[in-house]
Write a structure and sequence with these properties.
With 203 residues, the chain is an alpha+beta fold. It folds into two domains: 1-80; 104-202, Alpha-Beta Plaits (2-Layer Sandwich), CATH 3.30.70.60. It contains five helices and five strands. The chain has helices spanning 2-11, 28-80, 82-102, 109-122, 154-165; strands at residues 126-132, 136-137, 141-152, 171-180, 187-198. Strands 1, 2, 3, 4 and 5 form a five-stranded antiparallel beta sheet that branches. β2 and β3 form a beta hairpin. The protein starts with a helix and ends in a 5-residue tail after the last strand.
């Protein structure tokens, strides 16, 4: 019955008769509708003014959580494998130290040239020249090029190259040229040997 009365009031309502200065005299149905609209407006405005910012904060926090979780898992894995990492570090330091010991110092270069000379003589080669080239500095090491020219037969030259590559000091071989020599069976080979010195020795 009350619903019918309310609908009847709304049907018979003339908006022009409503006095804005005296809202208290408006029919109850109109006041209820106005309150409901105000409630909806307040809820929607509150959502956009408050909850949207909170939603953005929540999304940012969720992304940070995912990132932190991945970082935690990575660090937890590293922590679990810390003994192995330390062992690998010690092995790398030992290997690095062994390699450094294979690099000649300035005072050892004459000995290295002597080793190259003996290797050539042991393989019955004739040494045409062994020339030290200017040093070339890189970031961590100094390169010491040595131009070697020898002559002999094919097999002896091969044995010489193998012997130089297997010296106790690190020597790399580059840019070789082989030409016929005066004797029919002999060849003349020019090769660039490079050895290295750790840059820290210059500091």
């Amino acid at each position: 019955m009350a619903l019918q009365d309310t609908l009847e009031q709304l049907r018979s309502l003339d908006i022009n008769e409503l006095d804005v200065n005296n809202i208290g005299s408006w029919p109850a149905a109109v006041k209820a509708i106005i309150l409901a609209l105000l409630f909806v407006v307040v809820v929607v405005a509150g959502y956009f003014a408050y909850l949207t910012d909170k939603q953005n904060v929540l999304e940012t926090a969720e992304k940070q959580e995912s990132s932190l979780r991945s970082e935690y898992e990575s660090k937890a894995f590293q922590a679990a494998n810390l003994p192995q990492y330390r062992q690998q570090k010690e092995e790398m330091e030992a290997t690095f130290g062994a390699l450094l010991r294979q690099l000649p110092s300035d005072t050892e270069v004459p000995g290295l040239i002597e080793d190259i000379t003996l290797t050539a003589l042991d393989n019955e080669l004739t040494i045409q020249s062994i020339d030290l080239q200017p040093e070339r500095k890189a970031e961590f090491y100094v390169e010491l090029p040595i131009t070697i020219t020898v002559s002999g037969d094919y097999h002896d030259i091969g044995a010489f190259v193998s012997g130089v590559a297997n010296l106790s000091r690190i020597v790399t071989l580059h840019d070789f040229t082989i030409k016929p020599d005066t004797a029919p069976t002999d060849l003349n080979m020019t090769i660039l040997a490079k050895t290295y010195r750790y840059q820290d020795e210059d500091k």
